[in-house]
Specification:
By secondary structure, the chain is α+β, with helices and mostly antiparallel strands. 23% of the residues lie in helices and 31% in strands. The strands form seven sheets. Strands 7, 8, 11, 15, 16, 17 and 18 form a seven-stranded antiparallel beta sheet that branches. It has a three-stranded antiparallel beta sheet with strand order 12-13-14, with no helix packed on it. Helix 1 packs antiparallel against helix 2.
Length: 266
Amino acid sequence: MSIVRAFHITRTGLQLQETNLSIKSQNIAAQGVDGYKRQYLVATDLPYQDFGNVGTNTSDAGTISPTGLQIGLGVQAAGIYRIFTAGDPINTGNPLDLMIEGDGFFEVTLPDGTIAYTRVGALQLDATNRLVMPKTGYPILPVITLPANTTSLSINPLGEVYALVQGQSTEQLVGQIQLATFFNPAGLKAIGDSMFLETSAAGAPDIGVPNTNRRGTIKQTWREGSNVNAVEEITDLIKIEKIYDMLTKVLKTGDAMLQAVNSVGR
């Protein structure tokens, strides 16, 4: 139970708060990112050194130690979780903007054929009139191609895509949007561009049309913003700062104690 042990424990606490600060920085930076889901850190304590077992006999009369003597080795980051609550709805009036009301992800085909998943519905049209993701141009799955000379587009809550072609008086069904749900979306692997990959922790995707089997519905001309709460993030930053300050004071106290020990006998 030395002062050096206190230094090691404090180091783990400082490292934990540095990790937490990185997470909070990401959340704050991503406030304006479509479909971004805020993250939070889950921490646990490290194992303990046992200097006296709990429940051991203390006399021949059968008395038992009620507490024991255990000294912890510090703390550690156990995981970074995402909160998949809905983000703020944003009305854009753009017929290519889609928002998922409820659970679910759009499917996206990556260049290597891998399927990724996203909540971002700010769709665009590529050179072949396919509905694709912004920036990357990756097509959504199933691939939906609008007819040439399409003058208007409507997408109902069930994900049915209708196009009105120039010279025609009625819309025609040109595609069906599908959504994927996961039992544990927090287990998805983020790869950037607001996309995720399936993992064994998330489970296999359950794919189907909107408004079936826990899947949400589609809302056209709306986009989903981030679910970051700026007030909560700033409050957490203040907590991190105070905890970090207290831990540095532990180091200063330990250093003063070591100096006092070293000065004995001089």
